[in-house]
Amino acid sequence: MLLEAREISFGYKKGYHILNNISFAAESSERVGIVAPSGFGKTTLCKILAGYSKPSNGQVLLDGEDVYGMKGYHPVQMIWQHPETSVNPRLRLKETIAEGDQIEQRIINALGIEHDWLNRFPGELSGGELQRFCIARALGQRTRFLIADEISTMLDMITQAQIWSFLLEETEKRKLGLIVVTHNTALAEKVCTRIQILTK
Ligand SMILES: Nc1ncnc2c1ncn2[C@@H]1O[C@H](COP(=O)(O)OP(=O)(O)OP(=O)(O)O)[C@@H](O)[C@H]1O
Question: Which domains does the chain have, with CATH numbers?
């Protein structure tokens, strides 16, 4: 499967574009690191790829089909930098998991999610524990591409290693494309099959 962003332009303020004519493509067999300076618009591009923001110009295509015309589950799922703002604080974590597309128990186990955490609210977990739920939720049955936007910045080294080794194994097994946004070049070089530098 091919995910393509073609000549994307986007601005938060009318008349001022953050992204100007940006093109990007990734195959589901790839793990692509996106590198650009802070404030360039990497998260904005990820939001466009995952269907959260519509570009003012350009198209996002999945195997040639415009994703903004698709209905139902979005095959491009995003894991955000801040898990605490990516979950509903009023839902117990088992309900957060249920927001995903039939998340398999083996994914919950592999991420080290403890049974007792499922009955808690987000405010009762650490950032690292919560991020595991956000990763699990994104790995639904119909997910084809996963976007990881600075997902491990707040984690200790052991947890980072566990989570990345799980993600590499899972994406390989299910042939999911992985797009990685990080300022950590050593991490990008380790986990990605290709690095794409975005330029204005
Ligand atoms: N919701 C918003 N409303 C207005 N401006 C925004 C909004 N979100 C982001 N911006 C601005 O858009 C620009 C790009 O932001 P974005 O988060 O996409 O950059 P980034 O490359 O991911 O940055 P970083 O590497 O620092 O995370 C920034 O100047 C930011 O202030």
Answer: 30-52+71-197 (3.40.50.300)
